[in-house]
């Protein structure tokens, strides 16, 4: 943790390129996918859901093998640390973080979990007309309908959480003059001195490509394999 009254030091690299690409691709995919669902273009919606699934699988693996600040163990904190951080927000000086702060980390984990639940529930969902997830054929219509209900409700929860996420990011900018957006674009953060903040030493691009290829293959197989195993009669 770094407080605002400390002297500014040079920018350090915190977010690796794969993580930044993941973030902005996920944002575009999820916004496009939700808009497509709400506008009734379910083919586009399902395609976005499939891409989101590959991206989310990538992020989970990256949370274990990615550079420092991408790793879950570097930012997931218990309730005590979160409460202490929220208390510290109420009185100046503002505390800067190299990676996710404890409260932001909670929202990040919640977003990833809800999005994964959404992509997985979508696999079993149906729209009562011509669209169904690739795994819906393996369960009864009643179960698929129940999962579709969860998928619809969780979709609204996700929309709310995204609004909170974007609102919080702009809140940090306006209230604390803490620009979290620029680092998510450039990868580097300018932090006050006197902090043992770790800069990442590399982007692990080769590893990221290999992980992404495997996760994309998995997401493709989830859609393709049911067509080979149990082709639909129509
Ligand atoms: C559908 C839209 C979006 C989704 C699903 C989303 C999701 C996420 C996720 C999962 C993370 C964690 C990154 C990681 O560690 O993997 C994150 C971080 C972040 N997002 Fe978004 N995001 C969305 C839109 C946006 C937008 C529009 C902005 C900018 C205005 C933004 C700014 C940021 C920033 C600055 C962080 C880093 C926060 C920090 O420093 O702790 N996001 N977002
Ligand atoms: C993270 C990815 C996903 C998000 C954010 C998402 C979100 C949504 C939203 C917001 C709706 C509309 C709810 C409403 O109209 O009330 C919806 C409907 C639907 N989604 Fe997804 N979805 C995702 C992934 C998927 C996937 C992977 C599939 C299928 C393979 C899928 C299949 C469907 C179907 C069939 C509907 C229509 C349900 C109905 O008619 O009630 N979704 N989704």
Question: Please, could you describe this protein's structure?
Answer:
The chain has 234 residues and is mainly alpha-helical. It has a single domain (9-227), classed as Fumarate Reductase Cytochrome B subunit, CATH 1.20.950.20. Helices cover 65% and strands 6% of the residues. The chain has eight helices and four strands; from the N terminus they run ββααααβαααβα. It has helices spanning 17-39, 42-65, 72-75, 79-89, 102-123, 141-176, 181-186, 205-229, and strands at residues 2-3, 8-13, 95-96, 188-192. The strands form two sheets. It has a two-stranded antiparallel sheet with strand order 1-3. It has a two-stranded antiparallel ribbon with strand order 2-4. Helix 5 packs antiparallel against helix 6. Mean pLDDT is 93; it is low at 2-7. One protoporphyrin IX containing FE binds next to helix 1, helix 2, helix 5 and helix 6.
Helix/strand layout:
Layout: E1 2-3, E2 8-13, H1 17-39, H2 42-65, H3 72-75, H4 79-89, E3 95-96, H5 102-123, H6 141-176, H7 181-186, E4 188-192, H8 205-229
Antiparallel strand pairs: 1-3, 2-4
Helix pairs in contact: 1-2, 2-5, 2-8, 5-6
Bound molecules: protoporphyrin IX containing FE (HEM) (2 copies).
The count of strands amounts to 4
Give the overall silhouette: globular
Strand proportion: 5-15%
Question: With helices defined by DSSP (H or I, 4 residues minimum), what is the helix count?
Answer: 8
Structural class: mainly alpha
| CATH fold group | Fumarate Reductase Cytochrome B subunit
Q: What series of H and E elements makes up the topology? A: EEHHHHEHHHEH
**Strand order of the main beta sheet, please?**
1-3
In the predicted model, the low-confidence regions spanning at least 5 consecutive residues are: 2-7
Bound molecule kinds, no repeats: protoporphyrin IX containing FE
């Amino acid at each position: 943790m770094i407080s605002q009254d400390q002297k500014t030091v040079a920018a350090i690299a915190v977010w690796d390129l794969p993580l930044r690409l993941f973030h902005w691709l996920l944002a575009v995919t999820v916004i496009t996918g939700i808009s497509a669902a709400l506008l009734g273009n379910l083919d586009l919606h399902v395609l976005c859901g499939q891409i989101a699934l590959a991206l989310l699988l990538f992020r989970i693996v990256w949370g274990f093998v990615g550079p420092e600040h991408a790793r879950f163990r570097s930012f997931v904190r218990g309730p005590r640390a979160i409460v202490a951080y929220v208390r510290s927000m109420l009185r100046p000086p503002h505390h800067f973080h190299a990676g996710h702060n404890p409260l932001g980390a909670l929202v990040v984990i919640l977003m990833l979990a809800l999005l994964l639940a959404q992509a997985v529930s979508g696999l079993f969902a149906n729209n009562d007309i011509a669209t169904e997830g690739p795994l819906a054929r393996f369960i009864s219509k009643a179960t698929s309908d129940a999962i579709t209900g969860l998928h619809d409700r969780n979709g609204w929860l996700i929309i709310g959480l995204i609004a909170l996420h974007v609102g919080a990011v702009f809140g940090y900018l306006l209230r604390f003059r803490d620009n979290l957006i620029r680092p998510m674009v450039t990868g580097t953060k300018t932090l006050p001195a006197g902090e043992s903040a770790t800069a990442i030493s590399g982007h692990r691009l080769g590893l990221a490509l290999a992980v992404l290829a495997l996760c994309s293959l998995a997401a493709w197989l989830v859609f393709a394999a049911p067509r080979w195993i149990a082709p639909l009669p129509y």
